[in-house]
Design a protein that fits this description.
The protein has about 220 residues and is of the alpha+beta class. The strands form two sheets. The chain has a seven-stranded mixed β-sheet, sandwiched between helices. A two-stranded antiparallel ribbon has the order 1-2. Strand 1 and strand 2 form a beta hairpin. The chain starts with a helix and ends in a 15-residue tail after the last strand.
Length: about 220
């Protein structure tokens, strides 16, 4: 009986020490992104060191539709490309930052980065980029495949409302810029989770209006 008691006490002591060691682990450091809120339209945020570090740490997944010099760019490199020419920068609720730009010498290829700048260990970041999948005869219509690269698991059924609002505003402006030349609309949206898992949804399921889809 004494031997069993000693073993039990030893086991309890080991579990207690393990729990104490686990509790002693430092909590993940909170990232302060308040400096990014000061950027305004016309400024080239893509060269900011903190912005670059955030993009590098947020997107481990791969992309497989855009090549440069014979290789697929990493997602952080793709962001640099699609923000090559600075566009608009907006800040909503003194928290949600939306950055827009386009590929140099190709204003039709635009990208959008949405950042929740509230203090967090892993700030939510979403990169939206279009891929042309079909050009209709006469260049009067262009179908787009929108890619969402996310820094955290994104449930399209419960998308953050601030992101949904920014997305709709961004695409409306994107569509309006080119409407006098041709009609463009997304026919598919693919969400690429940080694990590399992909989820295909319809544009309406992520809040894009019928007008933005090119429907009457």
């Amino acid at each position: 009986m004494k031997r069993v008691t000693l073993v039990s006490l030893s086991l309890l002591l080991s579990l207690s020490l393990a729990g104490t060691a686990q509790d002693a682990r430092p909590a993940p450091a909170t990232v302060d992104l308040s400096a990014l809120r000061s950027f305004k339209t016309g400024q080239d945020i893509k060269w900011d060191k903190q912005f670059q570090a955030l993009m590098q740490s947020s997107f481990p997944q791969r992309q497989t539709f855009w090549r440069d010099h014979g290789r697929f760019q990493s997602v952080p490199e793709l962001i640099q490309t699609f923000l090559g020419v600075p566009g608009t920068i907006s800040l909503d609720q003194d928290r949600y930052l939306t950055v827009d730009g386009c590929v140099p010498h190709d204003g039709g290829d635009r990208g959008m980065v949405w950042i929740d700048t509230a203090p967090a260990a892993r700030p939510p970041v979403i990169f939206v980029v279009p891929q042309t999948v079909r050009t209709d005869p006469g260049e009067k219509g262009v179908s787009l495949h929108l890619w969402f690269f996310t820094s955290a698991q994104l449930n399209w059924q419960k998308m953050p409302q601030p992101f949904a609002a920014s997305l709709a505003n961004w695409f409306d402006a994107y569509h309006a810029t080119w409407a006098k030349y041709f009609n463009m609309w997304p026919v598919m949206v693919t969400i690429v989770q940080p694990t590399g898992e992909t989820v295909d949804v319809l544009p309406a399921q992520v809040g894009l209006s019928k007008r933005a889809e090119g429907e009457q």
